[in-house]
What does this fold into?
Amino acid sequence: MTLSPGTRLGPYEILTPLGAGGMGEVYRARDTRLGRDVAIKVLPQHLSANSEVRARFEREARTVSSLNHPHICVLHDVGREGDTDYLVMELVEGETLAMRLAKGALPISDALRLGGEIADALDRAHRAGIVHRDLKPGNIMLTRSGAKLMDFGLARATGMAGAAGSGSIPNMAALTQSPTVAQPLTAEGTIIGTFQYMAPEQLEGKEADARSDVWAFGCVLYEMVTGKRAFEGKSQASLISSIMSGEPPQMVTLAPLTPPALERVVRQCLAKDPENRWQSAGDLKRALEWSADPAASPSVIRDAAARPRRGLRASLVVAAVLGAALASAAWWLWSPRTAPTAAAVLDLPPTPGEALSLGPADVSISPDGRELAYVASDSSDVKHLLVRALDSHTAHVVPESENADHPFWSPDGRWIGYFTNGEGACLKKVPAAGGTPVKLCDVQWSRGGAWGKNGDILFSPSPNSPLSRISENGGAITVATQLDSTRGEKSHRNPSFLPDGEHFIFSAVPAVERGWTIFAASLRSPTVKPIGSALSAATWVAPGYLLFDRDGRVVAQRFDAKKLALVGDVTPISYATPLSQEDATRIATGSTNGRLAVLRSEPLRVLEWRSRTGALLGHPQIPSAFYYELRLTRDAQHAVLGRIADRFGVQVVRVDFDRGLATALTDRREYNDPGCWSPDGRTIAVSSVRQSGIENIGLLPADGTGPMRLLETSNLQFKSPACFSPDGKSLVISQVAPTTGRDLFVVDSEHGGKPRVLAGDAGQQETASVSPDGQWVAYNSDETGTSQVYLRRFPDGSDKIQITRSGCTEPHWTHNGRELVFIGNDRRSFFAVPFEGGRAPLPGAERVLFRTPFDVDGNGWDVTADGDRFFILAPDAAARAPSTTIVVDWTAMLTHG
It folds into this structure.
């Protein structure tokens, strides 16, 4: 059907026709409610005639509409006017990739850039469980802002395929149009897509999955670089035969400037067996980025024998640019080689029953490259230190290593040093082969250590201290560095020895701009030398390089140990874990024989509502991201979240539930940690690192209409707002005190001033909540070694009462102050205890409300004022599970000469 200008479809007014394809006619239209132009696609009548197909289409279309990605065309709405079904989409200005390819091949740089954008969009959709099934140049728009994928996921939703078993082949001319072909049914065994870009399994009538999109992507990328289709034929039969059994000409024969690395990437996309292709679009995207990198030049990379890839997490694969699996992990790890020929990556998943720590500094490889020391939690959510041989599927737990973190090896590989935190925090060492740990000294809350060849151990005893020095045999502790007040230094951390056992490097906190300063120093002199800055600490590795974070990558740069200076350019080695709870953290360790260990994780979170019994009530239509910490307004109409942008960038995000919007209130290049809402919902108190790298309390207008106002309190580091008083006049904050750990203080929320102690016991007092009547403050403390919930009078902090015995944290008031709700230390159990008549409840009266099937991150939940609904950050099921990346012969990536 053809629509005339002025025709109304709901609130949309048709302006002009834009085109037509197998899936309907497309018009430019005006959204009269929002005053914007949109694209309207009027769907074929077969959708209207089948209520089941229409319902499924609408359901899946709404799923597609949740894909918020800069390179996916936004689906705004699905509507029906009379007998007319239509889609409302973002109006994209530009030309299709098919139109551009009619003019010839793209420059290699453009192909790599656009290919990366398309792969990134595919990765986002695949994580949401959506497969395109008809990726082709006609479904890719080229705009000023880059590539845009069109008709995402709608091939399956509209049921467009030939009838199962009919053997019918759609008209070839129609198959090249955008959008996809329009034949009824989506039964198993049907063919969906455009022949030139269809994977062999699709031609066989098998179910398409994400790897079918990877095949189509390979065809598209081949065409972008060469200007020719990867598979062609004089007839439909010869075309199908070419896809099923033929191979396209080498790209370099058609485009001589094609990098060999890019050729390998495309070849793996076009593997006939889906098991041999790239197993995720995310890996494919990273491979393209490596292909554009100087480290992927032919002078550095050498071919390796290609083997079938039977599962990403269990295989040893050539580092991104090679696109082919190596023979086996054991062969590469243990076979003798006189010189490195190609870098390789082993993705080492955790052993069954353990959950890896998400701290990048909690993984360390042995000097000989054969073992890992790492931190993981058991089924009871207790962290331990484990040691594992790289060729083994099992690991042994180090005894007496509860609450371990930051392991590091002795230079001879015979011992492992590590720290424990919480009650009785200390520095220990343990024989790597097994044995009883030996305590060396007490610490408060360490930020890393290193072991020198002369028997010295450098370590950070607390987050607010210089580095200390102790013998590997214990004994006296001496100060190894001095904090420089002229630079505003609050902490030195994560040291790394140089080969001479005398000189070392370390990082200083607070940050300078977007990163931390790295210094070189000596055990014999108090003088330090700044050598640069990075988004992480730096670690020295043989044969003479520093590893650190540069824009989300682990990079290596040569270090002159005599001049104590960095030399030359950086070389990308691996992708860094994007999230860490620590400033200036260590991100990689190396062996003496060219192996690196890097933690790999994607801590994506989705938002969900649960009832008081734990029943899942639904998910707000907010895309998953690296969210952490959340707080609801009193009326539960809005929430504030923290969103990780990169290692140093954290945004404060306001969520509007009615409108389904997530709005960033701060710049992604700054570090702003969300805290709490004011009682009137107009202000959000945050922890902000904005000026001179010093952490301050900031007051941020919740509607985003004004600048943040900094609240002057103290010059101590690590301050965070916990809660406002009910009248909004006072603000409870948590900050690290010099002697007692993290304590609670009260400040004037309008004028700031010197903080007054509210709870200053030993251990960590962190989260707090003032009762609605302003008489009590509930908070958690681990002063006994286990976190429990306590009450004190507010605001003077008197009448301390322990409320829980089960081990609980993060209290919240509900039912107008007649109930306290909190989460257990297992991070899964939610408890409640009544609070009647202003009298404190009896200790141990808590009862379990429900348990979640996943661990809830710290402060990653809140509860409505009536206590009936819980808002929780849940792990995104589509996110990659944490694992350890072992880079073998990483020096092959270095550019020599």
The first helix runs from residue 45 to 49. Residues 503 and 522 are 4 Å apart (CA to CA). Residues 155-193, 294-332, 335-341 have pLDDT under 50 and may be disordered.
